[in-house]
Structures are given as C-alpha cells and as structure tokens.
Design goal:
Blueprint: H1 18-31, E1 37-38, H2 53-64, H3 77-89, E2 95-102, H4 103-115, E3 121-126, H5 131-138, E4 145-149, E5 155-156, H6 158-164, E6 169-175, H7 187-200, E7 203-207, E8 232-237, E9 249-255, H8 258-274, H9 286-291, H10 295-315, E10 321-322, E11 331-332, E12 335-336, H11 341-352, E13 354-355, E14 357-358, E15 371-374, H12 379-395
Parallel strand pairs: 1-13, 3-4, 3-6, 6-7, 7-8
Antiparallel strand pairs: 2-9, 4-5, 8-9, 10-12, 11-15, 14-15
Helix pairs in contact: 4-5, 4-8, 10-12
Length: 398
C-alpha cells in the first residue's frame, strides 16, 4: 500500500504562539534535572494567586443546582446584565449587545470572523498579543501591524496607523493595558484613534482584559466611553481580574449606533448560535464577581506593584537591558542589545532554566530586540531569575 501524507491547510503554516511554543524546549530542559524558573505564562494561578472563594462557590452552587446543561447562546441573563452594569460603570452608555464566550479569545475570534473576508485586514498593535495574528492566519487575512512607540511610553503611533489604513482595512485593535508592554493609552491617544475610526468606518476592538489590574498612577479609560458614535466591541473576562483563567469565561460588549452595527451584530450572533454556548455553570460566577467583593484586587495589585519594583530595580543593574515602566497588566517588555532575541531566550533557558518569551513572538519594530517577562512569580523567584539573567547575559555573545 502506498503511503499518502495528509497535508494540513496552508492557513495553519503561519500560526505560532510563542508563549506556549517555548514550553516545548522548557520541558526538555526540565527533564535534565535543571531547576526551572518560569517567567513566561500569564496565568496567576500557576504562582501564588488564588481565585476568590465567592467566585468558586457560585460555580459550585450552580453545578449542584443542575445548571449543567446548555446555556443561551449569548449567555445567561444574570451574566449579561452584570456585564452591562460593569461596562456602564466604565462610562459605556450606548450598549447594543452583550455576549458571553469561552474566554475572551473566543469572543475576539468570533468578532473577527463575523467582520472580515479573506484578503481584508485589521490594524494590529505591535507589540501585541499573538492570538490576533493566529486568527489572522486562520481567516486568510492580510497582516497589517501598526507600531507602538517605545520612546513614547509604548503609546500607539498615530502617524503609523494613518499610513497603514487602506480600502481593505475594517477594524483597529487596541489592547489596553497592553500585553506585552503593560502600557496604558493616554486619553489624547484614544481620541485620535476615535477620529480615525469614524473617518474610515472602522470597528474598534477594545481588548481590556486587564482593565482592573492597574498599579501605576494612570487611569484606565475605556475608549467606548469617550464617544457614543464609534462602533466598538469591548472585551474582558474572568481570567485575569478575577484570577480564574481555567474557567474560560470571557465576553464582549458591543456599543455604537444600531443603524451602523445592526447587521454585524446579527452576524456575530449567528456564530454564537452555531457554537451553541459557553460554559454554563461558570457563567453563574460572573455577576458574583462583577457585583461582589472586589477586595482581592487591592491585594493583587499591591503584590504586582512590589514585584514590578523588583523587576525595575534588578534590570536597571544590567548594562544592555532597558525597560519602559509598565502601568498595568502583569508583564514587562525590556529591550535587550542582542542580534536575535529568540536565540538569546533559547540559550538563556538551556543554560539557566529561566523561561522568558522572545519579543519577536509579539511583533516588534525591525531592528529592535526584546523579551517578555511575567511579573507574577513570588519575589524570591524573580530575584533569583534576574540574577541568572544578569550572569548569563554578561557572558553571552551579543
């Protein structure tokens, strides 16, 4: 019998996810017996953060009450009502639709799928979360990155955005606070993006999954709150703010003008119905999380603030590495003087057991090199990891 290899779809060729891909090498290094220090995964539960008890209890009660069947495709009413109330607290007053998804990642993928045809594009912040580029490949879209300006606190480069808009551009993504840089958009920047979106009929995808994890002085402003006419979908979920990434519960809040967004909202709901529903019992935790006790956020943000200070202090002692101070989320994105950040991260991992993610996995300006650090680990782990990075980098052939 002749052998015939099954060929995967060409759209999968460019699908990469650097955050997880580096784990393949890390697993090999771990098997050698080397002590591993993981600074790569943005999962607070892997470290010393725990899901608040009242959120767990709400899910458990829902299971005992037999809320284990299918949920409505857009989510249970108690959840969507709570999400709408939370959006209104952020100043989003023109809400057209709310839907619950299997993590914010599903919300993002559904909304991109419902909007863009093959050959079209959306403006993608660079550096930015690699989910978007993976979906881009799956949908046969044309990459259209816009750069964040490191010299300006990682603010979106408005002039670069203007130069990238063409007749195939349908949306602009804004990750605020940003993953991987931890930057927060200035109000002036948001207003300029609104002007461009209105001028070119763009949908704004406002990824605000870290909107309550703020440890700097800057206020987080939801872009949808600044103008009632913009077509916007604001994404969030339980994973980061409420320390429950394994629940896989996210959502989208659609705002703007019904006359403009009506057909698109129906397209989104067609896809929501086609995949049946998001996890049902966990949806009963949404209202409890958003309307209930928020005291865990003070503890989380205070710990992150302390761990950021360690990160800033330790990196400042390493010649060749510099860092724009993050203001939210739980990442740092230092620049490093090397020719190839992927090579540096691989060799660092093999030599020291420290796992970080190369900046190329998030996109970056040509000629620049970075790596992403997760600042979630306890202080002693961070201190040990930075000592190893400093020692390794001192002898690394740049």
């Amino acid at each position: 019998m002749s052998e015939f290899k099954i060929k995967p779809a060409s759209k999968t060729h460019n699908v990469t996810y650097a955050i997880r891909d580096i784990i393949v090498l890390a697993d090999e290094v771990r098997k050698s017996g080397k002590e591993m220090l993981y600074l790569n995964i943005g999962d607070p539960n892997v470290y010393d953060f725990t899901t608040p008890n009242h959120i767990i209890e709400a899910t458990y009660k829902a299971m005992l009450d037999n809320k284990n069947g299918y949920a409505p495709s857009s989510g249970i009413k108690a959840a969507t009502d709570a999400i709408a109330r939370d959006a209104e607290k952020k100043g989003i007053s023109n809400i057209l639709d709310v839907f619950v998804t299997t993590g914010a990642s599903e919300a993002i993928e559904i909304c991109l799928t419902a909007l863009l045809n093959p050959g079209e594009n959306f403006l993608m912040p660079t550096p930015g979360y690699p989910l978007y580029t993976a979906v881009e490949s799956k949908l046969d879209l044309v990459p259209n990155p816009y750069y964040l300006d490191e010299s300006n606190g990682w603010q979106p480069d408005i002039e670069d955005i203007k130069s990238k808009i063409n007749d195939k551009t349908k949306a602009i993504v804004l990750i605020n606070p940003n993953n991987p840089t931890g930057s927060i958009c200035e109000k002036e920047t948001l207003l300029k993006i609104i002007d461009l979106a209105l001028e070119h009929n763009l949908v704004i995808f406002a990824d605000e999954i870290y909107d309550k994890m703020i440890f700097g002085e800057k206020e987080l402003i939801s872009i949808a709150s600044l103008n009632k006419d913009i077509s916007c979908i604001t994404f969030s979920g339980l994973s980061k703010n409420y320390v429950a990434p394994g629940f896989r519960i996210g959502w989208g809040v659609v705002s703007g003008r019904q006359s403009v967004m009506g057909d698109y909202i129906e397209a989104i709901n067609k896809l929501l119905r086609a995949r049946v529903s998001a996890n049902h019992p966990e949806q009963h935790a949404i209202a409890v999380a958003l309307d209930g006790d928020q005291s865990h956020l003070n503890d989380v943000n205070n710990r992150l603030k302390n761990r950021l200070q360690i990160t800033m202090d330790k990196l400042a002692t390493i010649p060749g590495i510099s860092l724009v101070k993050p203001e939210g989320a739980f990442y740092a994105f230092p620049s490093i003087e090397v020719e190839d950040d992927s090579h540096f991260c691989r060799e660092l991992l093999k030599a020291t057991g420290v796992v970080v993610v190369p900046g190329s996995g998030f996109g970056q300006k040509p000629g620049s090199t970075h790596f992403r650090i997760v600042i979630l680990p306890p202080e002693d782990v961070l201190t040990k990891a930075f000592a190893r990075i400093a020692e390794f980098y001192a002898g690394y052939k740049k």
